[in-house]
Amino acid sequence: MIIKILGSGCKKCVALGENAKAAAAAAGKQAEIVKVTDFAEIAAYGVMSTPGLVIDEKVVSTGKVLTADEIGKLI
Amino acid sequence: MSVFGWLNDQVLRMTWLNDLVGAGVAAIGLDPASRIGGSVQFFVYDVIKIFILLSVLIFAISYVQSHFPPERTRAMLGGRSGLGANTLAALLGTLTPFCSCSSIPLFIGFTAAGLPLAVTFSFLISSPLVDLASVILLASIFNWPIALAYVVVGLLVAIVGGTIIGRLGMEGQVAEFVRTVPVSGEAATMTRGERLAYARDQAVEIVHRVWPYVLVGVGIGAAIHNWVPADVISGLLGQDKWWSVPVAVLVGIPMYADIFGTLPIAEALVGKGVGLGTVLAFMMAVTALSLPSLILLKRVVKMPLLVTFTGVVTLGILSIGLIFNAISNWFI
Questions:
Q1: Residues 6 or more apart from B21 whose CB is under 8 A from it?
Q2: How large is the ipTM?
Q3: Inter-chain residue contact B108 with A43, CB threshold 8 Å
Q4: pLDDT digits (tens, 9 = 90+) for B142-160
Q5: Which of B95, B105, B108, B325 could bond to B277 as cystine, CB 3.0-4.6 Å?
Q6: Confidence (pTM)
Q7: What is the DSSP string of B170-182?
């Protein structure tokens, strides 16, 4: 699966990326984590509050840093 | 003293804490009336006070804000224009949760949905400038009339600034890709428990993010408070010096700091006789405009609009500073 982190690179986005990595590892899934920092691309997902979390092209969360457990339930 | 006055002094200004810290300073052998003792007292008292207020306020305010995600704000503003829309946008700007790293996606989301530039800019100006938490902190450090005056003039800058930008007909000055972005995304509904969790997370996250600014701000405040002679400061930035407001604004604009970090500096400056207008202009310049946010904004708007935005906000802050200096005897 492909997990995308939408955000311009602020601290929250980094934290979300790390939690996503941990969640994928805990679930035993092969996940590719992609950081999307381009505003045009972020906006194309219709996301207005970063960081956003996109799993297999579906926006699952915006504006908050989910914990690894919370992400685990989504993947 | 009235009950309200007593509550205000004890709960909001925390005079008990100042007395307690003063006693503590004296207990370790420093005289609170001396320079070192006074600096230590100012620093410890201000740091504790700001962190207590910050945590409680952010928690309470985030709970309120959880009702106003940007998607909902956008829906409320949709299809409106004119002065009423600008006023509503400025008011919602104070309520919508805001982080400077989110301002660009927000700008894109609003513009793509067809909101007029006037409305979007009223929102973008008011959002960092007038923040609920900062208002209560202002009341704690100064007094309620000053805090309310700050809100009113902050909203005025946002409303007038947005209106002027709208009148200039700069709709074409937005990066092309913004117009072609799909508009989607509905705000998720939250349960009460989720709102409480959100409020808690916000409080932790914001305190975590701003504490270095607060420490530096209080440090500078303590230094000004006890080490810089009043006549040096009033000679440079005194109320009778016409250049004090422009200098405060020019120094403040490129700075990136949180309003919570600038408040202790403001407090110390006012204590040294710097005009209220000068201090308010400084705080507004620091929070409303900063180099990092302008660089981000450059990605989505063209240069003429960016310059207009900066110019309009700068002029607004300058006028507020000058007006407040002229009428500051109404407040202090």
A1: B41, B44, B45, B48
A2: 0.74
A3: yes
A4: 888 888 888 898 899 999 9
A5: B325
A6: 0.80
A7: -GGGB-HHHHTS-
